[in-house]
Amino acid sequence: MNNANVLDTLQLYLNSNAADSYNNNSNSDVEFRLPLIEADSQCYINISVQNVSIPHSFYNCNSTNNILRYNLDHPNHIETIVIPPGNYNVNTLKTYLASVMPNFTITFNSTTNKYTFYHHNREFTILSSSTCLTLLGFKTNISLTSTARTLTSTICCDFATTKCILIASSFPSSNISKAINSDNNIIASFPVDVLPFGLLTYSNHNNYRFNTYANILSSITLRLTDQNGNLLDLNGCDWTITLQLDIIDYVN
Predict the structure, then answer these.
(1) Alpha carbons 230 and 96: distance in angstroms, whole number
(2) In this predicted model, what pLDDT tens digit does every residue of 64-97 receive, in sequence order?
(3) CB 85 within 8 A of CB 66
(4) By the 8 A CB rule, do 233 and 227 touch?
(5) Angle at CA 169, nearest 5°, toward 25 and 158?
(6) End of a domain among 152, 184, 219?
(7) In this model, does residue 2 exceed pLDDT 60?
(8) Do 115 and 94 have their domain in common?
(9) Domain ends where: 118, 152, 186?
C-alpha cells in the first residue's frame, strides 16, 4: 500500500501485567482498555505486531497432554495416569512412568528415538483417549495393543510439543490456520526457537499489517496459543507486545 495513504501512526506498548481483564483466569488471554482512538469516517485502522517478548515458561507436558490411559487384558478395567506438568526429556519421563506403572519395564532406544513398554505378566493396550501419545511416540487417536506383552513406539517421540506461538486478537484478520479452523483472527505466528526458561522474541520484519475495517478503537483482546489453539500456560510469567496502529485513508 502507498504510504501516502497513511495519515497517522501510533504505537501501543502493552504488558500483560497491566491488562484490564484476564479471560480464562490466564495472562495469556487478556483485554486492554485504551483511550478512545477515532479516525475520520473514510479511514480504517490497520494493526501490525511490531515486536513481542514472551518467556519460555510453559511446559512441554501440561494439562493438554499429560494423561496416559491403558488397560490390562480386561477392556473395561482402565488405568489412568496423570503426569505432573513440567519439562520432561526421554529419561525423566521414562523414570516417572516406571514408578507409577507396576510390573512394566520401560526402555528407550536413543538410535530410533522410541520407547518400548514390556509387561511382565499380561497383554495391555494403550488407549487412544490418552493425551500424551505424541510424547511417547504413538500416533494420536489410535489404540495400540501389545504383542508378546511388548509395545514399541510407532513414530519418534516428540518432546517439542509447542512448536510455534500464535497471537490472536479480537479483530478478524482473515488469516487461516488449518489446525484451528474456527479461528480467523490470528495476527502473528513465530517458532519456539529458544530453550525452556529462555526469552522468546519476535519482530515483524516484513511489516505485515491487517485491516480492522473499523475507524474506532477503544479496547483490544490478545490471546497466546500453541499451534493447535491451546492457550499457553506461562506459569505466572508476564509478556510484552508492541502494536502499531496505522490510520489509512481509503478514499483519497
Answers:
(1) 25
(2) 999 999 999 866 789 999 999 999 999 999 999 9
(3) yes
(4) no
(5) 70
(6) 152
(7) no
(8) yes
(9) 152
Q: How many domains does the chain have?
A: 2
CA-CA-CA-CA torsion for 89, 90, 92, 96, nearest 10 degrees? 130
Q: Nearest Cα to 150, choosing from 106, 114, 120, 117?
A: 117
Give the cell for residue 59: 511446559
Q: How many residues does the chain have?
A: 252
The domain in which residue 47 lies consists of 3-58+162-249
**For range 190-202, the mean pLDDT:** 96
Identify the pLDDT of residue 50: 97
Close Cβ partners of 25 (under 8 Å, ≥ 6 residues apart): none
Q: Which three cell numbers stand for residue 120?
A: 511382565
User: Grid coordinates in use for 186?
Assistant: 490470528
